[in-house]
Amino acid sequence: MRQNDLDELRGQVDELNTKILDLINERTSVVQEIGKVKEKQGVNRYDPIREREMLNALVQSNEGPIPNGIVEQIFKGIFMSALEIQEDEQRNALLV
Amino acid sequence: MRQNDLDELRGQVDELNTKILDLINERTSVVQEIGKVKEKQGVNRYDPIREREMLNALVQSNEGPIPNGIVEQIFKGIFMSALEIQEDEQRNALLV
């Protein structure tokens, strides 16, 4: 009985993992679009003020159980990845 | 014109941020449930084999643009957070 509960809960986690991944990928695609617009404007991609605003908005809408400090930690990782990917792409473009 | 594009794209990012946060919170709640079942079974919460399986499944379903290495990095952070939160709760329960 309990093993079934565990399997059922694990199935839920697997489904959530995939949904989270899809959304983070979707987010990264939009950030790439933003990067292209900024490039045309000659503006720097990294915008610490915008990053702070996003973190504040996230903390404000956070209903838990994840504490705000860890929310910030996870999202800083997600923000950083999106920037890293763009830098890699830029570097590769320069190498072509 | 371009500023409007940027605002529109940023709006999309804000929406995605909130959706991602909600799903990570939902995931954490399910992991807490799993923790309770495991506690009753006297089984250790941290399960590196299950973690590896989840990472493999994520990498397999990853359609990009995030590279697999960064997908693993982000999700290891998410997995770790869920464990940390449970440990904190356990510690607090012992202190009551």
From TrEMBL, chains A, B:
Residues 1-90 form the Chorismate mutase domain. This is Protein AroA(G). It comes from Sporosarcina luteola. The chain holds residues 1 to 96 of 360 of the full protein.
